[in-house]
Amino acid sequence: MLSRKNFIQRSALATVSLSLLEFIQPANAAELSAHLERIEPLSAEAAARDEDFWAWIREQYTTSPNIMNLNNGGVSPQPKPVQDAHIRYYQYCNEAPSYYMWRILDLGREPLRNRLAELAGCSPEEIAINRNTTEGLNTIIFGLNLKAGDEVVLTKYDYPNMTNAWKQREKRDGIKLNWVELDLPVESDATFLEKFEKAITPKTKIVHVTHMMNWTGQILPARKIADMAHKKGCEVIVDASHSFVHIEHKISELDCDYYAASLHKWLCAPFGTGFMFIKKEKIKNVWALLSAPVPDAGNIGKFESIGTRSFAAEMAIGNAIDFHYLIGSKRKEERLRFLKNYWCEKVAKLPKVKFYTSMKPEYSCAIATFGIEGWDPTDISSELFDKWKIHTTTANHEAVNGVRITPHVYTSLRDLDVLVAAITEIAGKVGPVKKKE
Fold first, then answer.
1. Between β-strands 204-210 and 151-155, what pairing exists: parallel, antiparallel or unpaired?
2. Which of 203, 331, 372, 403 is the most core-located residue (most Cβ within 10 A)?
């Protein structure tokens, strides 16, 4: 472990994070090196099936042995090296908060921004570090210069915190919302393009795209929608809460104007960490949501004037990035998709099971939502937890009425075998009878 002197020296030199290996025991690090040497020559698809490597990854998490967490889409745990770094930063902050936070740890903010930009695929001058996707997208939604009569295109399956923000602007400013109707799952880029294009009019200013929908894990062809929308003179917002470091992509590849993501989901960074992207030339057109010296400046820093924040959590983002690179972006994506396919394929043929998620790789990855004929999703979720201690969440929104299953890199095949057995048993029973009110 680092001495206090070395810690301060490294922080003063603006090192983003404590080295990941410093939080891995030597014997464990040697085992890791052996695993990496073995899987490096393998394709991402082959590495996704290397159970020895993923067992090592699983050992880095401190998840409960008594509860099977299959709701990682809500928020994910951090591996122990990230937890340890976060705690260490927090302890140093508490020795003299205003000194260690503002004069030492804050020196790591710009290097961290550089690393996030590299991971995301954009310029550091286009990234604001914040707490989550909701904060980022609400900053954009409420900061855009829209007037009465301007139109926004969005879908009824976008995340509620975003649709509610747009509804507030509709109510307060008189903008018009044009809703795209979808019948999930959709397995055609052409269908998405047709429906979004049909909703655009000469008055449309913004097209809001959820890259991966939280309800079912549906992946949208964000780049194709952005290209079409730009040709019609619209700006494009991408909600990447579930897609960032879940499915491999770069912001530059999407060519969107605005983008935000939570880092406590698929990156496994500390809770309450995220970032927002705005194309450099458009920053000046977005008002800061909170007070800033120059709220209409062209500097991304105006969006970070939020008062005292958690420096310890922010700095530990760097360790989460290290851990992500250790796994490998494409290996992670393929492992997550493999886990989804593993359990879905085993229950797909059960007579009463219905899926709201596509099984095609271009339209889904880790997340899948299912229902059972004759069962209310709440009862399924309760049964899974009460009997098998499988923690899930329900997705009851518009035409989706099911249970969402979201494994992560630490989820084992043994866990998923238990899930399959549980679903099989539930599907073979009659659902609880609801009392009439």
1. parallel
2. 403
Q: Which residue has the tokens 């490294």?
A: 10
Phi, then psi, of 80 in degrees rounded to 5: -60, -40
CATH 1.10.238.10 fits 330-426, yes or no: no
pLDDT in tens, 39-88: 999 999 999 999 999 999 999 999 999 999 999 999 999 999 999 999 99
116-309 — its CATH code? Answer: 3.40.640.10
Nearest one of 22, 76, 23, 60 to 274, comparing CA atoms: 76
Phi, psi of 235 (to 5 degrees): -95, 155
Domain boundaries for CATH 3.90.1150.10 within the chain: 330-426
Return residue ranges of the chain for CATH 3.40.640.10: 116-309
Q: Tens digit of pLDDT for each residue in 384-421?
A: 999 999 999 999 999 999 999 999 999 999 999 999 99
Residue 26 has pLDDT above 60, yes or no: no
- Rounded to whole angstroms, how far apart are CA atoms 386 and 273? 32
11 pLDDT tier (thresholds 50, 70, 90) = very low
| Tens digit of each residue's pLDDT (9 = 90 or more) over 156-204 | 999 999 999 999 999 999 999 999 999 999 999 999 999 999 999 999 9
> What's the CA dihedral at 407, 136, 18, 320 to 10 degrees?
10
Parallel, antiparallel, or unpaired for β 274-278 and 127-130? Answer: antiparallel
CB atoms within 10 A of CB 272: 17
57-61, 361-365, 381-385, 431-435, range with the lowest pLDDT: 431-435
341, 357 contact by CB (below 8 A): no
User: Is the pTM for the entire model greater than 0.85?
Assistant: yes
Instruction: Determine the pLDDT at residue 36.
Output: 87
How far is 70 from 422, CA to CA, in rounded Å?
Answer: 13
Is the distance from CB of 263 to CB of 269 less than 8 angstroms? yes
| Rounded Cα gap, residues 308 and 295, in angstroms | 19
Contact between residue 54 and residue 409 where contact means Cβ atoms under 8 Å apart: yes
232 three-class SS: coil
Q: Which two tokens stand for residue 11?
A: 């922080």
Structure tokens at 34: 């052996």
Nearest CA among 237, 215, 63, 223 for reference residue 143: 237
- Here the tokens at position 302 are 């105006």
- CA diameter of the chain: 69
Q: Pairing between strand 274-278 and 258-262? A: antiparallel
